Each structure stands twice: as C-alpha cells, then as structure tokens.
C-alpha cells in the first residue's frame, strides 16, 4: 500500500476533525450549525450496499467498528446549474479496532458499472449525474462497500481554507509557474478578485488561489500522479499550520471553513466520531490508492475516443477490504 492520491476534500475534513477535537462542546455544537446538511436515502438498496455482505448482526461488528465515509471534491467554481464532477473521491475510514484513520483514494477515471442510466462510465461522472447519493451508490456497488454518508467541498472551499490559515509554504518549480498562473487567472475571473501571479520559483508562501492552482497542475511532470504529490505537500503544510494555531485562531478558521462544507452527517455523528478519535488519541493515518500499481491491476482503455482506467475487480477489491477491515469482513 503506497502513499498516493490525497484530494482537496480531505484537506477540509481532517481539518474539521482536528479542530473540533480541541474546542469546547457548546462552541463546536454552535459552529456545526454552519455546515450545509443534506439528507440522503439510508436504504441499502438506494446506496448500493450488499446487505448479505454487511449484516448488522455479524460477530465482528463491522458496521460499528469500521466507520466509512465518502469524501468528495467537486470541480465547481461558481453557483451555476452545472452540478460539477467529483474529481476527488476518497474513502475515509475510522478504524476503532486498530485505532487508525485510513484514506483510500479512487482515481477519477476508473471505469465503473451502473453509473446512473449508463451501463459503464467514469467514476467522476457519477456526481454529475446524481449528486452525492449516486456517487455513494456507484462506489458501494462497484467496490462492495457500506458507506451511508458523505462530505463534500469544492474549489472555492479549498482556497478559502488556505487563506483562513494564512497561506502555505511550498517549493515551486520554475517549470510550474506558467500553469499555476493560468489557473490563478481562471479562479480570479470567476471570483471577481484581483489575481496575484507568481513571478519566480523556489520556496515561497502561497495564498489560497495560488495553492489551489498548484494542486490543479496536470500538464507539468508526470500528469495526475505528480499532481497528487503536490496535493500531499499542501495537505502536510495545512496540518502544520493548524497544529500551531491557538484556540482563537482555530475558532476563526472554523467560522470561515464550515459554511463551505456539505455533508449528510448529523451533528451527533460528527461529535461522536471526533470525540472517539480524541479520547483514543488516534494519530496513525494510513493510505491506499485504487487501482493499485500492481501488475495487471489496471489497464488504460480508449472507448469511442474517450480515456478510461479499467481495473482488475477481484484483486483491487480484495486488497481494499483487507486494508480497511483487516480480515474482519467475511
């Protein structure tokens, strides 16, 4: 299991987990009201959950001991009728048995079955066709998972988060400048803000738009794979900044961040999961990316002129279940 794709959505979710843990209950309960809460179906069939595989009466208490939530990062910059696509799909697992947090990144171009009205399509399109509920159903159905909740953010959320913590320090390559400035301009036009372009490479502090542009680079280096390295670098910097904040700064950050987060989780669930992680001092974070890099685990395919990432179902699903449930899912 290799450290791979960490998408924009996890930046928000883990920030929320960390900051909730260090503030008072009444303050947090009040701040959680700023979240946009969206109710979705809890019917297993509507969410693509195999009830024979995930039986609430199982002896290992899988449903209780392994909390799985789908994190969605949507490529949408403004309030239009366009739903946007979920370029970021991550399974967040709170493993109560082994006291860990696990992150499983799913590549956006994975070829999935039964995506809305289509027999097959890219994972990223599930959100465009049916929002978070269809994204949950597609991931559950194709990967034999049991998720019932989601957390979603978009590009605007991301850059505002970075600004809220005072920017991030990153080492920018000279070859990345042109692409970064192109994306800065795109966001600035939509947001009707003055763009601040980069003029040189090297270690420097990036503001929210600049950091977002840095994360979006695909044309420099090794495409999507190198882009994930940039996203991890930003993630680490965000954690470093949050860990050095005092309670007043954290409170102000939550006021900025939470209005841009949408979730199906209840306040009770958020507080329960967060307090569990705090009380048990959970600091271990493990990561996996699907499809894996193993020989035969993925294949590039062109269908009607469109690129898809096909994948070995049996091998990838077996490894995913072992990573998340560590043998407890029978």
TrEMBL record:
Q: Which InterPro entries match?
A: LytR/CpsA/Psr_CW_biosynth (IPR050922), LytR_CpsA_psr (IPR004474)
Q: Which key words tag this protein in UniProt? A: Membrane, Transmembrane, Transmembrane helix
Q: List all membrane-crossing ranges.
A: 7-28
Describe the location of the Cell envelope-related transcriptional attenuator domain by residue ranges. Answer: 85-243
Pfam families named among the record's database cross-references: LytR_cpsA_psr
- What's the family? Belongs to the LytR/CpsA/Psr (LCP) family.
The name this protein goes by in its record: Cell envelope-related function transcriptional attenuator common domain protein
């Amino acid at each position: 299991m290799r450290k791979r794709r960490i998408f924009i959505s996890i930046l928000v979710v883990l920030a929320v987990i960390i900051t909730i843990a260090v503030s008072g209950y009444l303050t947090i309960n009040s701040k959680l009201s700023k979240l946009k809460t969206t109710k979705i179906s809890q019917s297993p069939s509507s969410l693509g959950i195999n009830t024979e595989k995930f039986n609430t009466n199982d002896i290992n208490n899988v449903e209780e001991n392994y909390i799985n939530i789908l994190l969605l990062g949507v490529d949408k910059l403004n309030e239009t009728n366009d739903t946007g696509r979920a370029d970021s799909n991550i399974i967040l697992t709170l493993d109560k048995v082994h006291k860990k947090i696990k992150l499983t990144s799913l590549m956006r171009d994975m070829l999935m079955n039964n995506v809305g009205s289509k027999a097959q399509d890219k994972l990223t399109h599930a959100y465009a066709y049916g929002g978070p509920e269809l994204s949950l159903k597609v991931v559950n159905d194709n990967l034999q998972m049991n998720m019932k909740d989601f957390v979603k953010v978009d590009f605007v959320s991301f850059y505002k988060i970075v600004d809220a913590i005072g920017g991030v320090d990153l080492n920018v390559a000279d070859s990345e400048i042109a692409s970064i400035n192109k994306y800065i301009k795109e966001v600035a036009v939509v947001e009707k803000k003055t763009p601040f372009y980069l003029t040189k490479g090297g270690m420097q502090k990036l503001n929210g738009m600049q950091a977002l542009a840095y994360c979006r680079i695909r044309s420099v280096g090794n495409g999507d794979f190198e882009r994930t390295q940039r996203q991890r670098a930003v993630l680490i910097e965000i954690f470093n900044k949050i860990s050095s904040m005092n309670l007043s700064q954290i409170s102000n950050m939550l006021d900025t961040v939470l209005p841009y987060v949408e979730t199906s989780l209840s306040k009770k669930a958020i507080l329960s999961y967060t307090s569990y992680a705090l009380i048990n001092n959970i600091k271990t974070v493990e990561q996996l990316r699907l499809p894996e890099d193993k020989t035969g685990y993925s294949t590039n395919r062109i269908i009607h002129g469109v690129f898809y990432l096909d994948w070995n179902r049996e091998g990838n699903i077996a490894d995913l279940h072992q990573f998340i449930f560590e043998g407890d899912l029978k």
